[in-house]
Amino acid sequence: MPAHAAAVGYTVQVVKPKNQDDKTVGYFALRTHPNAQQMLEVIVHNQTDRPQKFNVHVTQAVTNSNGIIDYSQYDPQLDPSLKVKMRDLFAKRQQTITVPANGRVPVKVTYQMPAQRLRGCVLGGIYVIQAQPQQVKQTKAKIRLRDIFAYAVSIRLRESPHNVTPNLRMNRVGVAQVDRQNLVTANLQNFEPGILSGMSVQASVKARNGLRPILQQNQKPLGMAPNSNFNFGLPWGNHNLKAGPYTLELTAHGDGQTWHFVRNFTITSRELRKLGPTNPTKPNNWLYLLLAAIIALLLALIAYLLYRNHQARTQRQ
């Protein structure tokens, strides 16, 4: 069935081959074998009355910083545990196509499996993205380009009928700044060639030997690509962590498994200096009090005017 990119003016249709081992899904879930060579095909439908140009990439699935399986990165940083890379299986990983108005163009890519038997699965995608904005939208205030839309079709290759169970380890714990927000980060790594889905994470940070958590963060649902890692972040919020020793405790649940990690770490003065300025998140209580006072005065004024109007009507009667 076609995969729709809503309100974009195009769709991407998967042509499922005979070795599709899950016919209920709208992506390539394929059972293959060593040395196998196979051509995959998707069809890009242009639903507009003008030609559209698209860039098509074959990508490796990774886990992004939000704990989501990401198919959009053409040349991502790969996890050291990844043995079979999607980029090594496809000789032609990038192409550009032009689809005529209200037309359709097939896109074909070919993979070849290594001679050595594959354990688990390799996960990637065919990533289709508009090569240019649809048009320039002009207003009196500014000129801006319309959004460029993309769609990813997953490719899951495996040789065994059985999935490999994912597994987690926690690597480095430290501090970082993302979008001017300070975080304590814990690097989580799925070091097995299995997909981890429906994961929830509960984490807290407290001073070493402290009783109460200073930071807490709970997130779900998360997912991890096979043989990938990402930095789970605990925002500082209104807390201003000082240099010193801390303890992070993290519990993850997913695919019927539970992982529990406890890690001591130290924040140094040098690390704090490197973080730079942050966006203020502490609420301005004086501003809230001022707004409350203005609202109270307006309500009192309205009540007085209504009362005076009522009195005036009573006197006239």
TrEMBL record:
Segments crossing the lipid bilayer: 286-307
Keyword Chaperone set for record: no
Keywords, ordered alphabetically: Membrane, Transmembrane, Transmembrane helix
Positions of the WxL Interacting Protein host binding domain: 143-275
WxL Interacting Protein peptidoglycan binding domain segment(s): 10-129
Protein name as annotated: Cell surface protein
UniProt source species: Levilactobacillus namurensis DSM 19117
Lineage, top ranks: Bacteria, Bacillati, Bacillota, Bacilli, Lactobacillales
